[in-house]
Amino acid sequence: MPTHAKLRVFSLGEVEVPVGIFINNEWVEASSSETFSTTNPATGEKSLDFAHASKEDVDKAVKAARKAFKTTWGNNIQATKRAAVLFKLADLMERDTERLAALESITTGKGIRMVRTTELADSIACLRYYAGLADKLHGQTITSFGKEKFVYTVHQPIGVCGQIIPWNDPIMMWAWKVAPALAAGCTLVLKPSELTPLTALLMCDLAKEAGIPAGVLNTLPGFGSTTGDAIARHMNIDKVAFTGSVVTGRRISIAAAESNLKKVNLELGGKSPILVFDSADVEEAANWTALAIWFNSGQYCCAGSRVYIQEGVYEKFITALKQRAEACAIGQPHDEKTSFGPLICETQRDKVLNYIVSGKEAGARVVTGGEKWPQSNGGFWIEPTILADTTPDMRVVKEEIFGPVIVAAPFSTEEQAVELANDTTYGLAAAVFTNDTRQVARVTSALDAGTVWCNQYAFVHPSVPFGGFKQSGTGPELGTYGMEAYMQVKAVHQNLTQRMKWPM
């Protein structure tokens, strides 16, 4: 439970971040003076206390956001001015890359090089993409009514939006949510994960420096069950966007429906399949599959956590993947060589270990890994793990583990491969490895997933939509679709010659 403490500042070298709440471009204490603590995943030690935003604080933030939407943002300024602010914010992020990378690495346990070259680079690119798109989405003119009337559509920002971001990619998920919403003209009440709020708080000062007006971006750390629920249920929030688990996504949908029926965007979990056919380049496919599951220690929604290999190359592929697992650059977050860090917390580590035990008890073969990293020293590492010879009824095959564990099984025919891949309640991503171009077309068409990679994995781009089928979410992010998700369409009928007689 939260404890009571005064607002204070976190310092890392020259980096200072107030660990309070940010409303109307001002740092303030939580109304209740409550705090919650975070843990360093590389040491297991307590890290920081953060202000815990209450329902009252959410209400204050919403009022500030509504005022800004009606006065200094939204349709009150030119889209090119919104674009200029986003471009400036991207420049400031680029200027402060080292500071942001250091904070992100400390709070998530990721290798600092990985944060700098992937997460931060992608976040900056996302801001610049939406800055460039801000004045380029337009309505339609509908000229099919002859001389009777002229009809056109207008794209307008939805209004005040609540955003709830996860702990696994904090700064990138911040950019994916904030950039399209601000480009569209919305104002925001954002809650970072209670496990990783630090970089979202630092971004508040950068946003203010970039020239984002007061009330446009408000950031409130807190628990999902309190702060998040208050956002989802607030009667004056027009939309809520969430990235996280299916369980929490359901709760948010219910809260939105029970309040003002606000619009909801959900990017949820996955159990993404990888299909490796006999014709594939086994060594290349093993490289991409290793990236698919061991990037960010398996802690990302579209991780390729199920791999199905055609019988002709099954053992050869398993051997190649084992070599990649044992070559992972496991280490401390501050080490430039590290690409495989700890899991986010003790609870997550123990959950993953329990899944591994479950798989072994159900008959899966442990090819490699399956244990805590011997050099963990209080941190939350788990070795890169391969469970082979799995069957569709196993928990490790059916449920999202969200850790560095991949399950593997053979298949004989293309039809069987597609059936195995689609045998899941999720539908976020998938991949196909084959050198048969006709097979690529057949299989990608048959897979139930929002993103399908062919002979690669995990690479995304701000211009390409990303979203899930089935229980993996509602509504894509990124691309023009991601900005349209923060806009609503108004149809305007302009009468030219039509007359109305009464009574009809």
Automatic annotation (TrEMBL):
GO molecular function: oxidoreductase activity, acting on the aldehyde or oxo group of donors, NAD or NADP as acceptor
Residue ranges annotated for the Aldehyde dehydrogenase domain, each copy included: 27-492
Keyword Nucleotide-binding among UniProt keywords: no
UniProt cross-references to Gene3D superfamilies, sorted A to Z: Aldehyde Dehydrogenase, Chain A, domain 1 (3.40.605.10), Aldehyde Dehydrogenase, Chain A, domain 2 (3.40.309.10)
SUPFAM superfamilies listed in its UniProt record: ALDH-like
UniProt keyword list: Oxidoreductase
PROSITE patterns: ALDEHYDE_DEHYDR_GLU
Catalytic residues of the enzyme: E267
Record family assignment: Belongs to the aldehyde dehydrogenase family.
Name of the featured protein: Aldehyde dehydrogenase domain-containing protein
Lineage: Eukaryota, Fungi, Dikarya, Basidiomycota, Agaricomycotina
